[in-house]
Amino acid sequence: MDAKAPFRLIPVVLILLSSLFFLPETSHPQSGDRIQPPSTRDTSQPAPKSRQRRGTSQGVAGARLKYVPGKAPAFWSIATAETIMERYPDYREAYWKPWSYVQGYVFHGFEMLYRSTGNPRYLDYIKRYVDYFVDERGNFLGDSLNNLDNFMTGSSIATIYGYTGDERYKIAAAQFRRALDRYPRSDGQFWHGKRSAHMWIDGVFMGQMFVIRYASTIGDRVYCFDEAALQILTFARHCSKGNSGLYLHAWSAHPQLTPWADPKTGCSPEVWSEGLGWYALILVETLAVLPSNHPKRGEIEEIFRGLAEGLAVAQDQKSGGWYMIVDKGDRPGNWIDPSGTAMFVYALQRGIDLGLLSKERYAEITVRGYNSLFDFVRINHQGLVDIHGAGDGISVKKDYETYVGVPRMVNAKEAVGGFLWVTALMEERELEKLKSR
Fold it and tell me: d(Cα 270, Cα 326) in Å, to the nearest integer?
């Protein structure tokens, strides 16, 4: 046997061991705000089984709508939601597994449309999905709550309780809430997955979207708001990139075991657009519901305003969008990311609407960012909305080249969700006029 052979195996072994540390990437109604529930799935018939898939599906082959290629629809938000419903009659079939964070992300956009238009189809689509995972006694039947991605769509269970008052959704949501009591942490912050002490920017969004929705619809407000503040502030303390207002993707409590972590700081190397977008979204959504007298509110507002200013500085002056690596637009291989751009535009506009940001300072930045998205959006030959040019399911990377080298595709799931959020917000006033028709 070659004496060097055992040493050649060391890199392979290290790669296999390091893979064990990663898990897949994965206005609010108050409890008294009851709305007539939409139609209910026929539970007398067994639910069709859903299969596991390896990536993002482009939907059923026969999906077709009447939108015209080359012609903008009256409402991009409605066209996008209709496209999702047409492509995925059973939304469990859309992504790599039936229960994922993406459904909850997209459903928030559906809820926005429901509240703006009053059209029950949007709430019914959420409820139909949730009913596959919550039985008649309120048992949650989805994936184990062993990573923060799996908590995200728990926010949709709490949402449906907020609208229907059906106790089984409250019982199911409480299972998510109790799971947080025993969830592992480092320096107070939740691990992204239970296998390793890694704290991702994605996870701050995934976990706290559930927490703030639970507070808004069910209760336990003291715990929930304190927890959301803790998660936001702890991440900021570890991952702030100097005084830029921007934040790195992740940090590890065990950098010596983590290929992407700086050995001194434990942080990953880059400011990834979509990750920063998750953080921008949870900041502004938390501030939308956090009590004005909460002791940490001032700190969170400061973080949000600093991030907004960092985005203003980093915005690409030619396109109006933001780069995949936000603060390195001059580097080779970097590209404008429609997913992160949609998130940033939403957060900035929401901040203006909430009075957190100056309209004079940020309105033009927001409009330019919003307009940049339409370089990526098309109505295809089947009358469906397609979103081009984003990466799909991106996790923490070891260096700049690996981030910008990720494949781009049509209808990357996070880009679709981000586009729905931002169009539902930007079109909100016109959408509300549909209620009177």
Answer: 8
* Distinct helix (H) and strand (E) counts, the chain: 16, 8
Please give the single-letter amino acid code of residue 422: V
- Across 113-267, the runs of DSSP E, i.e. the strands, are 185-186, 189-190, 198-200, 250-252
For the chain, which residues score pLDDT lower than 50?
1-53
Quick: pLDDT tens for 306-321.
Answer: 999 999 999 999 999 9
Structure tokens at 404: 């910008």
Q: Report the alpha-carbon distance of residue 106 to residue 53 in Å, rounded.
A: 19
- The pLDDT tens digits for 158-169 are 999 999 999 999
| Closest among 88, 213, 96, 204 to 143, alpha carbons compared | 96
Work out whether strand 377-379 and strand 250-252 pair parallel, antiparallel, or are unpaired: unpaired
Q: Report the alpha-carbon distance of residue 101 to residue 413 in Å, rounded.
A: 10
Fold of 66-436: Glycosyltransferase (1.50.10)
The pLDDT tens digits for 376-410 are: 999 999 999 999 999 999 999 999 999 999 999 99
Helix or strand (DSSP H, E) at 416:
helix 413-426
Dihedrals phi, psi of 402, to nearest 5 degrees: -70, -35
Contact 182, 145 (CB under 8 A): no
Cβ contact 262:255 at 8 Å: yes
- Domain ranges, ordered by start, for the chain: 66-436
Q: Which amino acid is at 27?
A: S
Q: Which helix (H) or strand (E) holds 365?
A: helix 359-372
